[in-house]
């Protein structure tokens, strides 16, 4: 089941694809494309150029670019230069960029020409001797010419290759150190054998490339399997629908919110096709069981839900396309991984009992960059403590019920925000929602909901409350509901509840 033939050094994989399928499309965006025959020498040339500039083995190189073919080429080149890639969201604030550059101690930053002054100022602020390399719309071609140094192409795939910063659902991002081996293990045990990704697939990717989910599926797996990919600069429901009608895409990865909006738009337009898509993949955040059921019924395409986190190079569990599935479950553990669900004392809990999910396997992170104490705590006993609450049935299907630190404790009773969100999301006028805990003088905390109203609908708060009372125990019903224009989420689709809680603070 595990495709060990897909686990190899990056240079080896690129040269293999270039030799076997030189004319095949590797990556494409709205402005340019690159074949496998072009990708191998281009990334080799850029890697040589980074070494020529003085980037040493193991040094960190930040990528501050929008989703694009450029982004992928730079990422692959950094690894071929035997350096460590540090992806930074192109939508980051200057404070976020500054923190990541300093925390990762970056030796170089690759960015667009118009960003050089800002990056230079941030590097100067932290005393970083940081080389700034500009890269835009494929202008890296000269890098590949007249350079005497070949790419280092490290053979050791278990050494640090990426520092990916956590999503920041609590506001505190940590640099997660990942190896190429860990990411390739997910390819070999999950994306290739279970989702079936292969050289005949054409992936439509709207995921942000700086996130581990996209890094795993939309970068590493594409190269390893020889698939092709169209990279969207950012998610747009209307643009996805247009692209699906124009190209023979076969795989559509995303996060739950994306599939939610896609289904909603299709219903409005009475559109029941996703073109030639054979499978949709969801990860990053919990996929409501009702959404999964409605999506598959409407489009006639399987939507496979999975659970993954940055610290495990993404996937931990996934639902298989064939065989039984459990509504609302995130599937079975990926082959080669061991999972347990434990109580506060570290003891395994009974089937059906909620506890903390812990994971052990070849895809678990090497640690947190420059944070030995946090690393030791997170990897105690060789098991990664996810901080996520879950339960398992007797067949091994896992269901994520929330975050250990996000549980709302109302008068001594635990409330999972995800359970309340699931109930609210079935109200016809609600497009999206999120639930947080608000401090209460007598009860400790009470649940409060934020909702986005579906276009063309009006909403009565009292009706939503009544809807919840029909579906939830009394103590789980939100004390109040607030209408908002947007729900703050991370690149992986997780709700940033700390930002919503700030809205509840007195002015």
What does this molecule look like?
The relative contact order is 0.09. The radius of gyration is 23 Å and the shape is globular. The chain has 507 residues and is an alpha/beta fold. The protein has helices at 10-20, 36-52, 69-80, 94-103, 116-125, 180-191, 212-225, 237-246, 256-269, 289-299, 372-378, 417-425, 461-471, 497-503; strands spanning 25-28, 33-35, 60-64, 84-87, 108-111, 131-134, 160-165, 175-179, 202-205, 228-231, 251-254, 279-282, 302-309, 314-318, 332-333, 338-342, 355-360, 367-368, 384-392, 398-403, 408-410, 413-415, 430-440, 444-453, 480-483. Helix 13 links the parallel strand 24 and strand 25. The longest helix is centred in the first third of the chain and has 17 residues, at 36-52. The protein contains 14 helices and 25 strands. Helix 6 (180-191) packs across helix 7 and helix 8 (237-246) packs across helix 9 (256-269). Strands 11-12-13-14-15 form a five-stranded mixed sheet. It has three domains: 7-155, Rossmann fold (3-Layer(aba) Sandwich); 219-403, Rossmann fold (3-Layer(aba) Sandwich), CATH 3.40.50; 408-503, 2-Layer Sandwich (GMP Synthetase, Chain A, domain 3).
């Amino acid at each position: 089941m595990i495709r060990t033939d897909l686990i190899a050094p990056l240079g080896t994989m690129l040269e293999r694809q270039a030799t076997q399928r030189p004319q095949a499309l590797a990556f494409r965006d709205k402005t340019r494309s690159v074949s496998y025959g072009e990708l191998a020498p281009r990334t080799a040339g850029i890697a040589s150029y980074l070494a020529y500039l003085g980037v040493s083995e193991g040094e960190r190189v930040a990528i501050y670019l929008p989703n694009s073919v450029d982004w992928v080429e730079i990422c692959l080149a950094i690894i071929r230069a035997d350096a460590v890639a540090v992806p930074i969201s192109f939508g980051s604030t200057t404070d976020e960029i500054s923190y990541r550059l300093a925390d990762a101690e970056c030796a170089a930053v690759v960015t667009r020409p118009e960003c050089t002054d800002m990056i230079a100022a941030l590097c100067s602020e932290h005393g970083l001797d940081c080389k700034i390399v500009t890269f835009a719309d494929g202008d890296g071609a000269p890098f590949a010419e007249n350079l005497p140094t070949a790419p280092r192409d490290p053979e050791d795939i278990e050494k640090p290759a990426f520092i990916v910063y956590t999503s920041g659902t609590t506001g505190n991002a940590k640099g997660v150190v990942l190896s190429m081996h860990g990411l390739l293990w997910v390819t070999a045990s999950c994306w290739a054998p279970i989702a079936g990704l292969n050289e005949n697939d054409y992936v439509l990717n709207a995921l942000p490339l700086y996130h581990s989910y996209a890094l795993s599926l939309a970068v590493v797996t594409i190269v390893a399997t020889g698939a092709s990919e169209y990279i969207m600069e950012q998610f747009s429901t209307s643009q996805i629908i247009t692209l699906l009608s124009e190209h023979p895409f076969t795989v559509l990865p995303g996060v739950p919110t994306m599939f939610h909006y896609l289904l909603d738009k299709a219903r409005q337009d009475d559109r029941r096709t996703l073109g030639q898509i054979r499978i949709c993949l969801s990860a990053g955040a919990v996929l409501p069981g009702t959404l999964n059921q409605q999506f598959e019924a409407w489009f006639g395409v399987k939507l496979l839900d999975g659970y993954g986190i940055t610290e495990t190079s993404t996937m931990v569990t996934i639902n298989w396309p064939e065989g039984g599935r459990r509504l609302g479950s995130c599937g079975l553990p990926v082959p080669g991984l061991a999972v347990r669900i434990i109580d506060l004392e570290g003891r395994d809990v009974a089937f059906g009992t909620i506890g903390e999910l812990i994971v052990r396997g070849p895809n678990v992170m090497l640690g947190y960059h420059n944070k030995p104490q946090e690393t030791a705590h997170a990897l105690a006993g060789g098991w990664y403590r996810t901080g996520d609450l879950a339960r398992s049935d007797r067949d091994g299907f896992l269901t994520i019920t929330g975050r250990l630190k996000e549980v709302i404790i109302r008068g001594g009773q635990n409330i999972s925000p995800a359970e309340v969100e699931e109930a609210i999301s079935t109200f016809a006028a609600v497009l999206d929602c999120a639930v947080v805990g608000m401090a209460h003088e007598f009860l400790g905390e009470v649940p409060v909901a934020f909702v986005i109203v579906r276009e063309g609908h009006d909403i009565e708060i009292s009706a939503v409350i009544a809807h919840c009372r029909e579906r939830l125990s009394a103590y789980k019903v939100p004390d109040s509901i607030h209408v908002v224009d947007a729900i703050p989420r991370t690149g992986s689709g997780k709700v940033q509840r700390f930002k919503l809680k700030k809205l509840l603070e007195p002015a």
